[in-house]
Every structure is written in C-alpha cells, then in structure tokens.
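Researcher: Hi, I'm a grad student and pretty new to this. My advisor asked me to get structures for two proteins we've been looking at. I'm not sure of the right format, so I'll just paste the first sequence and hope you can take it from there.
Model: That works fine. Here's the first sequence with its structure tokens right after it:
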Amino acid sequence: MLPKRLIYLMGSLLIMVHLCGCSGLSQRATIKVTSNPSGADLYDETGRYWGTTPMTLTRRHWTSGETLSNTFTFELPGYQRATRTLSYRVHLNNPSYAVHANLVEIRTPSVSEPTYYSVQHTLTTDPNGSAVYINQDFMGHTPLSIELTWSSRGDNRKELRFEKYGYQTNRRMITPNDKRIHVVMQ
C-alpha cells in the first residue's frame, strides 16, 4: 500500500501534467518561408529579423490545438515590401505550413534622352543696328537671321536682349515657335 503522502504527490503531478497539456511536452509547427525572387529579408510582426528566404522556421508552443497567427514581412531592395499572415494550429503531430510571397519589382520610369532640333529665327529692330544677345551671348546686329537649337523637353525659352546706344534695353523671351521677332526700340 502506498503512503498517503505519495498518493497526493502523484495525484498533484497528474493534475499538473493534464493542465500543461500532453505530458508537458512542447508542440511544434514547422513553417517553410519562400519568396520569388529568393533572398528577401524576413521580419515578423514585432520587427524581429529572422533571416533570408528560403528558410524553415520552427515555432514551439505548450498548448496543443492552439490557433496561432504570425505576420511576416518580406523586404528585398528593388522590390515592393510584401506582408503575409499565416494562421495555424499546433498539434502533437508537428504539422508543416508554408508562406510564400511573389515580390513585385519597383520599376522606375525610363528616361529617354532628349532630342534636339534647330529653328531659324529672323530678328529685326526699328531702327536697325541693335546688338542682340541670347542668354548673355552676343549674336550680332539687326537685321539678323540665326539658327537656334532647342530641346524636345525642358524649359524651351531663351532670353533675347536688344541694346542700341541712346535707346532703352529691350528684353524678350522666345520659344521655338517665335520665327520672326520685331522690336521697336525706344
């Protein structure tokens, strides 16, 4: 016959084992984590870094049948960040789960090279003989026919400055569409 104290001790142990679930052994869930392309950094919902894909995680828990959820964030330079959430149950038979993310490449718009074209401009003044400057560069005296190069993009304006002794300086902004320019000096 077992002593009364030993019976109480064994009963207490059985109750503790039952409360802890399945003889107190930890339950596991294996999670295979992959991405396309591979090599993405993997973080959990707390921001903890786990490594790079592909990888296998083992999550240990003490309660069998518990439903758990983990959110994983995949980060790879040149790709949009992806987030995946996995809900799973922990069992004695150690189930396996998988999480996969197809990462989307960040595309930068292609910048085409500008094209350049020439336009003939005719510049006249009243009276003739005014000095013409374009963006501070002397071009000649009026009447003047000049060919200017323009870009297919960007600010297509140039500043013309007309100067003649005894008259006020006259400034004009021109565009490729201004083929003939006539200025009356004052």
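Researcher: Oh nice, that was easy. Here's the second one.
Model: And its structure:
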Amino acid sequence: MITKLISERIVPLVLAVSLSVGANVASAAGSASKPSPNATRLIEMAKAKASEDLKDPDSALFRNVALHRGAKATNISYICGEMNAKNGFGGYIGYKPFIATVMPERAEIIGIIKFTDEITLGIYDSMKPTSCVN
C-alpha cells in the first residue's frame, strides 16, 4: 500500500516540482542575458541616480550592471554594477561598485550606495555575496 502511494502520488509530484523548478531556473538564466524592458528601465534609472551628483555626470561609464531579484516576500531587488567617472582634474578615477535598491513593481529606486573609498569598499565586499550575486 505504501509502495503504491509512493509510486502513484509522491513520485509524480516530485517530478512535477523538479520540472517546474528547472523551468524557472532556465527562465531566470535566459532573462539574465536579455533583460526585460522593465529591468532595462530600472537599470537606466539606477545609472542616472548613481551619476547625478558627479561634477561631470555625462562622463560616467558603467560596466557589469545587472538586476538581481531579491526575495519574493520583500518585493525588493538590487541593481549592482561598477561606475567610472572623471574627477575634478578631468581624469577617470577607476571603476567603483554601486548598489541600487529598487522596487520593480513600482519602477522606483529606493536608495543607492556608491562605494568609493577603502572603508565603503570593505563594506561592499561583505554585502556583495548577499545582494549582488545571481
């Protein structure tokens, strides 16, 4: 009786859940290579926010910028990347990381942190594994 229950009910359920999880992972991997229009819009908003207080906002260069989904329960996601900009002497300072906290459903940037010195770069190193990895 238990064997029949396992073969008729539990095995198909486990198989269905496994296929569902696999499809979600594949879907997430596919979306990482081609961001949705909403993700693209959020990324552009984060870039604008990151560069708005620079002496020369138009000089900002970005790389490795991506949207990372947070926990579904919080509806909060993160946009992580690196920004390079000109200093007061007109020279580029080198790429520095930034993290923007976003609410995708409302297309809203909640806050942004730019890591520009040794102290904040140390904080970034401790934060990155929890918010900026797929």
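Researcher: Is there anything I should tell my advisor about the second?
Model: You could mention this: Residues 1-32 have pLDDT under 50 and may be disordered.
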